[in-house]
Amino acid sequence: MVLRAAIITLLSLFWALPVFAGPAASVVFFSGQPVVLAENGVSRQLLRGADVLAGETIETRDGRVQLRFRDGASMSLQPGTTFRVDRFRYTAGDKAVAEDGVLMTLVKGGLRTVTGWLGKRDRKQYQLGTTVATIGIRGTEYSAELDGAGLVVRTYVGIVEVCSKVGCVDVPGGKEVWVRSLDEAPRLRENDGKGADAIQAVPDVPLKLEAGEQVRPPAGMAGEAPPLPAGRHGKF
């Protein structure tokens, strides 16, 4: 009960903060016909070099998208992914200051990212939320995949912290964690290669168009983006 009360308190603090609607990232590359949804629900076609603002949602649909964030982070989104930038603030050119931070949500699908300045010195500045757990970092490279079976997070470099309502687990390089639901503890396990196909489905950074990759008609995306759950992070 104490943990859940703390989570509710952190959520109220998060959403009491103003939305900084400036550019959070720019589109480096895309394939297929992905779209961006503004906070008011209006959609627009994704364009190379275009800005993605705090509060906007990307639906990759049939394609792939690579983003470059203002703090230097790179992120590749795989087909069938819905990803939202909830909050973003970065004021310095070569380091993050105390007031900076980023909150993001992986609604569904998969991503792979190399983090930038945010979270490098203070991991409370960085959080990626899903419906079953939140992810915090200590300057790292990791992937995350969310589907009906839960969330799988694989760490390649550095350490990732994954938190559900039940508890938190540190995931060092070469290992992965599975979280089935928000009310279950994350389960740490060795990355023995069983998830190799899923890892390859999320392209390395920088992402490049594969030879012979075809553009298909966009597939529909159903459902609304869920609220961002909180772990034991939450300074920003």
UniProtKB/TrEMBL annotation:
Renumbered residue ranges of the record's region Disordered: 212-236
Keyword Amino-acid biosynthesis tagged: no
Coiled coil: none
Entry-linked Pfam families: FecR (PF04773)
FecR protein domain sequence ranges: 57-161
Family annotation (InterPro entries): FecR
Lineage top rank: taxon: Bacteria
Signal peptide stretch: 1-21
Alphabetically ordered keywords of this record: Signal
PANTHER family: FECR PROTEIN DOMAIN-CONTAINING PROTEIN, LIPL45-RELATED LIPOPROTEIN-RELATED
Protein name as annotated: FecR protein domain-containing protein
Taxonomic source organism: Azonexus hydrophilus
